[in-house]
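User: Can you help me understand a structure? I only have the sequence.
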Amino acid sequence: MRFSRVEPFFGEDFTKIQEAKILLLGVGGVGGIALDCLVRSGFKNITIVDFDSYDASNQNRQLFSEMHQGELKVEALQKHYPSIQTINAQITPKWVEELECEQFDVVLDAIDDREAKIALAQKCYKKLISSFGSAKRLDPTKVEVADVWKTYGDRFGSKIRYELRKRGFNKKYKVIFSTEEAKIKQNGSFMGVTATFGLTMCAEVIKKVNNG
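Assistant: Let's start by predicting it. Here is the structure, written out as tokens:
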């Protein structure tokens, strides 16, 4: 059986995994790995949202990028995961405003846009698992999970917390982050770290679905 090596971990709770409705926002270096893990773990109701296309710079960290240069990520990924639902859209605060969080059990934030992340936190915090910065780092052992107010060591995350406080937001939600200081100033990503973020995100979804 396809899931014979996974199902024993969960027993009767495996039906929760198969029936859970997951919304995954962003399928780049973090989101793409999270998607692969979710599908391989038995999740059947996954909707992904992204607007970007694969280019050469993605090949160091994003699954299938070398095979689909120039193709929309959502369309390319559906070829590999036929059961998923796809939405080709740019995730902006306006898009989030129109999002109906209630129709999903878990909302996964693997996007880079700060304002959209803030809007997601405000609207979907009860269902949200968010990723802070995975770029410019080399040590996967520095990846941690905490509620947003207990994250540290990430300048991007610090800005998110500041903006949330400024808006009067004081709720909690799970965040995946790295305590490692950025190693370079220019753009750069190491798959050892981005993939760790994605796999951790998948593991946190399983906890949330099975434990509430």
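Now, to help you interpret it: The longest strand covers residues 45-50. The longest helix spans residues 191-211. Let me know which part you'd like to focus on.
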